[in-house]
Write a structure and sequence with these properties.
Order of helices and strands: HEEEHEEEEE
Number of helices: 2
CATH topology: TATA-Binding Protein
Radius of gyration: 15 Å
Strand content: 25-35%
Helix content: 10-25%
Number of strands: 8
Structural class: alpha+beta
CATH architecture: 2-Layer Sandwich
CATH class: Alpha Beta
Shape: globular
Distance between the termini: 24 Å
Length: 142
């Protein structure tokens, strides 16, 4: 998951970052099914972050460009109803999901959520801290 988030922020404008400091430490683990049963009921881990960008960033264009990036990785990318628009949901072949969603009011930067594939609930850990709390853009030039 961290690799997908890092690769995403690396494609954003210089000075960008993914900031998870205002969200629950360690992210969020929830059941995959609406009606889970037993300790082994599948769960997934989600990591929520605010996208920090340089001033004057066009957020509508940013959402579209991020969706295009995920599509270039071979992911299925769609815009979903029921979420602030614009939004893009990227579905990786390995079961990970990334979503970028516009914020309200529209002057606020979009947020990004990464979710793991589902796994057995008995493997759940709620004591692992989110590392790193802020993911910064790394230059891809050498």
């Amino acid at each position: 998951m961290l690799r997908y988030l890092q690769d995403t922020v690396n494609a954003l404008p210089p000075g960008s970052s993914l900031d998870g400091t205002r969200y629950v430490a360690g992210g969020d683990t929830r059941h995959c099914d609406d009606d889970p049963s037993g300790p082994d009921a599948p769960v997934r881990f989600s990591d929520w972050r605010d996208i920090q960008t340089p001033a004057q960033t066009d957020f509508t264009e940013l959402v579209s460009e991020v969706g295009d990036l995920w599509r270039s990785w071979g992911w299925q990318v769609i815009e979903r109803d029921g979420y602030e628009k614009p939004n893009r949901f990227g579905y990786a072949p390995d079961g990970y999901v990334l979503q970028i969603t516009a914020s309200y009011p529209p002057t606020y930067p979009p947020s990004i959520i990464a979710a793991s594939p589902c796994y057995p609930g008995n493997l759940r850990r709620d004591d692992i801290p989110r590392n790193p709390p802020v993911i910064t853009r790394k230059s891809t030039t050498g």
